[in-house]
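Friendly challenge for the regulars: who can give me the structure tokens for this chain first? No prize, just bragging rights.
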Amino acid sequence: MFRINNLATIVAILIITSCTTTKKDNYTQYANPFVGTAENGHCSPCACVPFGLIQAGPETGNGSWAYCAGYQYSDSILNGFSQNRLNGTGCHDLGDLLILPFTGNAVRDTYKSKFDKSKEKASPGYYSVYLSDFEIKTEISSTEHAAFYHCTFKGTGKPHLLIDFQSNITGNLEQLKNHILKSHIYQENDSIISGDTRTKVWVDRTYYYVIKFSQPIDGKTKLKKRDPAEKAPRYVYDFNLKKGDDLLIKIALSSTSIEGAKKNMQTEIPDWNFNKIKKQANSKWNTLLSKIQI
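First reply, four minutes later:
Bragging rights claimed.
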């Protein structure tokens, strides 16, 4: 038997013990993306990679200071999923290209869904939620410049996807009507949409995008403007899918051009392997987190 006589000895033993940690350890298991998502934390459990342009995740509210990141943990209704946001800043901007998978009538009074909190999950580089109103499981992962969605339609209704090109995270609802200064949308074929948008909330900026679907578009509906000041449309896209079918969606952004967005998508997500991108995102976080060992 031996006795530890002083604090220095204890510290030395702890340091030696900590050095036995290997790089194969899973550091991401200790990270909880829901931290900071309640009250005035102004954070979102979005799917992102370290230092990425993309922070794709849920939007549960908009138009007030409480929703600087577009999310409150206590909420149970979802507006949809946007592709970028500011986390922990206390100011509004981003929240571009809001999408919502849904079923039933294409034209409806409201485009929202209740979601099952017990099935809402997040880990570094990944977010998942079950849309109760439409029986749709939605999973999100990302790369530095592109978001990747895996939507599984578990109900029997006609599948659709809302894309709200007018949406953005704003400080008030009036700003939501007039923040878009210019918008161009191009449907290149039955599975690719591209465009550019100039918007001003906190910063006057222009972003370029490309959206690609794993299944062909089966039809679309242009929705009526909610206000005459809006300069960007809302479209509902139809898909010919059966119960249990999947719809994969890739959305890439660029600050320079549509061609830049296409290059980002092709370079970072060249195929339709969602689990591969999810695993890569987790690995990137694990590499960053492994720089500190305790």
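The longest strand covers residues 204-213. The helical segments are 7-18, 173-178, 258-268, 274-289. Your move, everyone else.
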